[in-house]
Amino acid sequence: MHPVPAAVLRALPDPVRRARRIEAALSGGLDSVVLLHTLAQLQDSLNAELSAVHVHHGLHAQADCWLDFCRDYCEHLGIPLRVEKVTVRPAGQGIEAAARQARYQAFARSSADILAAAHHADDQTETFFLAALRGGGLRALAAMPELRPLAENPAVHIWRPLLPHTRAELAAYAAEHRLDYITDPANADPAYLRNRLRHDGLPRLRRIQPQLDAHIRAAVALLQDELAVLQETVDADWQTVHDAHGFNTVDWRQLTPARRRQTARRLLLELGGSLKNQAFLTDFCRVLDQIGTSEAQWPLGARTLIASQNRLYCLPNDWQRQYTPADQTGSLKDWQAAGWQLRPAPHGLPPATLARPLRIRPAAKGDLLATPVGRKPPKQILHEHRIPPFIRPCWPLIADENNRPLALANLSAPERDTVSDGLILCHPAFDRFVPPIEQTA
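The structure assignment produced for this chain is given below.
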């Protein structure tokens, strides 16, 4: 067996060995042509269904010809091809970054367990230097791991089996097997920093230090090891600050500033998919550290992040409309069919009350709820239960068929005639806003 397939087979990660489907990214260039040919040679050993995906960016006049080449190549190998035509929208970022984003979104739509990419050792060196030139931190300098879940779809793992091999080795493989491939003229365009680095900067450095690539690969291996330790710390901190009620900013403030930034970074990535920039992360941490129990809001694309009462809530931008109840009357059976639940409450409503028609609506001016110490407006009761101020105007009020206020949803009923083994009507959507008991004591 040729050294490249043999090396790939020897180093198969366990998730690849267990994979039922492997899809190879095929651009038509040297690297991806060699990758698909290599995997085709190993198909029996991989014990997985092999396919390919070509992302048609439409950025070059020859893009359709490249697609035809990939179709012919896959037909020759007897490998199914998925074609993804994407629209690249720079929208404030460079064309390369926008194309990469569109490409990875296409990869994320894969039904395979593994998405094989053709990055090689030279790519790894270039990625390291690009990260350094752009002021990247540990994650950027750690470059490309051999295997990781796709951020866009963690069910799919991206696998880079050619990372130990140089571009020269892949060219020799292609020559030995007489493989045709496409040469993208954009790879020689000096307008792109990667190309200037590849064709000018790195050759000069290699003349100064012939072992440059070996040293960079060793450095990247160390950085990836250190990154794994950092990730373990972030995961542990995440468990500290995140519970069933959401992100606890009191616990978050007990962390050191560096760990606060790392945990906030994870939060923003999980909620928004990406960070706007480092300045946004810094300002986010500054505000979150200073507001205490006050409120602050941040837009995150189609969602809004709200800090209130020492908690963080991520809601759709139209959350007011979604959470404000329509004014409707129905039987208990009707409300349960609509997703409402009956739960025991220390001071719940009597079953006889719940057997009558119930009206659920927003609280109105002049509403009062009877309590053991007198009648109180709903907003005062919500305040006493430490319900976040921003959601209080949306909180559902439960009334009888005559519109007499009985209780507030999800909270113990305040009336004098409630019973210790009573019930309260709750909607799960509002559970997240009810603080844990220890915070309401």
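Interim note for the steering committee: The mean pLDDT is 91. The longest helix spans residues 212-241.
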